[in-house]
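Annotated sample (chain length 202).
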Amino acid sequence: MSIKVIVFDFDGTLIDSNRLKYNAYFKLFNLDEHYTRRIREVLSNIYEQSRFVILEEIVRFLREDGKFELVPEVDELADRYNDIVLDGAKMCPQMPGAQSVLKSLHRRYRLYVSSTTPDSALKEIIRYRSWHSFFEDIFGYPHQKTATLKNIITREMVQPTEVLVVGDGESDRTSAIEAGCAFVHVDEKFRLENLENAIAKL
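Output written by the structure step:
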């Protein structure tokens, strides 16, 4: 069965922003190496979760330690985190070939974005890059990836096997499996320019 719909992850798939987003967590806190190390542990365990989940876990740890009783609330930290990454995500490099690939694919496929970046920020970044016309819709947090895929399948009136998920994270793979969709993994060896070849092999 041929692919009719492609759902892209965003960070690390269409733009090269993963390091920017990772480093932003450390900029929120003025901490010594002990606490920095513990934040790295949190990120290693739940990095693909939304920033709200990650910040809640960091705040819980800092407050349990007792030294940081006045750590700001998660919503305040999330706002500050958003300020740090928003401009960076607008200006950071696209993944090689991303714009030309989207321009080519959107003529023949229905394209969507599904990301853990908050919905409003995600749409702002995509509009800033003038990519919004490539996509039928854009889904960020609090939308969950598996639920988003099932919603798209219903909306487009296609079979799950006619939907392809393209992403760099385990959450992308897992959501594709749970929804019954095809999956292409974007890593350091994969270039988006090769996506159509990968589709032809599905």
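Annotation: The chain has a mean pLDDT of 92.
Annotation: Strands lie at 5-8, 110-118, 137-141, 163-167, 182-185.
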